[in-house]
Amino acid sequence: MSQGQPVIWHLLNIFISVVRRLPHRSAVVLGGRLGLLVTKATPKKFHEACARCERILGVSKERAEEIVTGSYRHFGSAAAEFARMPDAAQNIDSLVSCSGLEYLHDAAAKRGAMLVTAHIGNWEYGAACLAHHGFPVNALGADQRDSRITELIKELREAGGVTALGKAGDLKVMVSALKRGEFIAVPVDQDAKEFGAVSPFLGFPASTPTGPERLAARLGCDVIPVFCIRNSDGITMDLKIYPPMQGRDGKPFGADIQESTDDLNRIISEEICRHPEQWMWMYPRWESVERGIFDDRGN
User: Fold this and answer.
1) Residue 41 domain-assigned?
2) Which of 20, 185, 171, 167 is nearest to 116 (CA)?
3) How crowded is the C-beta side of 62, counted as CA atoms within 13 Å?
4) What is the per-residue burial (b if ≥16 Cβ within 10 Å, else e) of 49-70?
5) Does 294 fall in a domain?
6) Nearest CA to 156 among 114, 188, 116, 124?
7) Got the DSSP string for 154-182?
8) What is the DSSP letter of 218?
9) Which one, of 277, 294, 104, lies nearest residue 208 by Cα?
10) Is residue 279 within 8 Å of residue 272, measured between CB atoms?
11) Rounded to 5°, angle at Cα 279 from 99 and 277
C-alpha cells in the first residue's frame, strides 16, 4: 500500500475531524477560508492560475485574480462539504435542488447513461443527490499518490450512496453497469494527453477524453451533461441535468467522435463561463497540446 504523503494525510485527518464537528454552514465557511490561505501558501501556483484564467477568458488581470481567488475559496468549501458527506447525505435534499430528473428516468428505462460533468461546483453532492433519489450512480476516480487518500475518497462517496469505481480504463466494469441500466458519472475536463482527441475547450484546443462518446457508439446509451452549481448563498446548490446529447445531422451521438467531443466541450465551456469562480483554474487543462505532443498528428 502506497503511503507517500504522510504530512498531507495527517493534515487531512485534522481537517476532517474539525469540519465534522462543526455545523454545516460553519464548516463550509471554514473550508472557504482555508482555501484562501492556500493562495498565500502557494503563490506560484496561484499566479500561474491567474495568468491562465486571464489568457483563456480574455479578462483583465484584476478580474482573473478575482475569479481564481473565488475558485480557491469554492474548492476549500467543497472539500469541507465532501468531508461531511456521512452527515450531509442524510439531508442532501435540503442542500441540493434538482431539475431534469425526467431525462434520467428515460435513460434508466433504456440502457443507463454516462453522466458527464466537470470539476465545477460540487459534483460529489450532485452524485449523492441522484443516489438519494434512487438512481444507481457509479463514480469514476483516479488513484491518488497515497492509497489511504484513495480509500478515503471511496468511503466518502459510498457514504453518499454512490458506488466508487476505479479508473476509466476498466471498460468491462463500465459496460456491465450500463447494461444493468445504471449511471456512470465522470468529469471530462482533464488533460487526456496522448489518449484524447484535440477539441476546443473554452475556445482553446485541449486533449479531451472520449470514453463517453465511444460507449454511446458501442452501447447506444445516453450521454447526459450534469452540473451541480453552488448558489449565491454559498451553501445550497442547483443540480442541472441537461437533455441527452444528440449527434449532428440526425446521426447518433458518438457516431462521429470529433463532432461529439466538440459538442460536449461546448456545453461544459458554456457552464464554466457562467460560473468561472467554481471551476478548477489551478489545473493545467491545455498543457499537452501546448507542449506540442499532437504536432506530428497534424492537429
Assistant:
1) yes
2) 185
3) 0
4) bbebbbebbeeeeeebbbbbbb
5) no
6) 124
7) HHHHHHTTPEEP--TT-HHHHHHHHHTT-
8) H
9) 294
10) yes
11) 95
Amino acid identity, position 149: I
Going 226 to 230 to 235 to 238, the CA torsion angle's sign is negative
- 21 Cα distance to chain centroid: 27
Average pLDDT, the chain: 93
pTM of the model: 0.93
Question: What is the structure's pLDDT at 168?
Answer: 53
b (16+ CB within 10 A) / e for 176-185: ebbeebbbbb
pLDDT over 60 (residue 169): no
Mean pLDDT within 162-191? 86
Range(s) of the domain holding residue 254: 6-283
Residue 83: its pLDDT value, please? 97
Beta-bridge partners for 96: 237
pLDDT digit string (tens) for 69-116?
A: 999 999 999 999 999 999 999 999 999 999 999 999 999 888 889 999
Domains contained in the chain, number: 1
CA 192 to CA 299: how far, in whole Å? 15
Q: What is the pLDDT of residue 70?
A: 98
Kindly list the distances between the CA atom of residue 196 and the CA atoms of 80, 138, 289, in Å, as whole numbers in the listed order: 32, 22, 10
Evaluate whether residue 293 is within a structural domain. Answer: no
Whether residue 168 lies inside any domain: the answer is yes
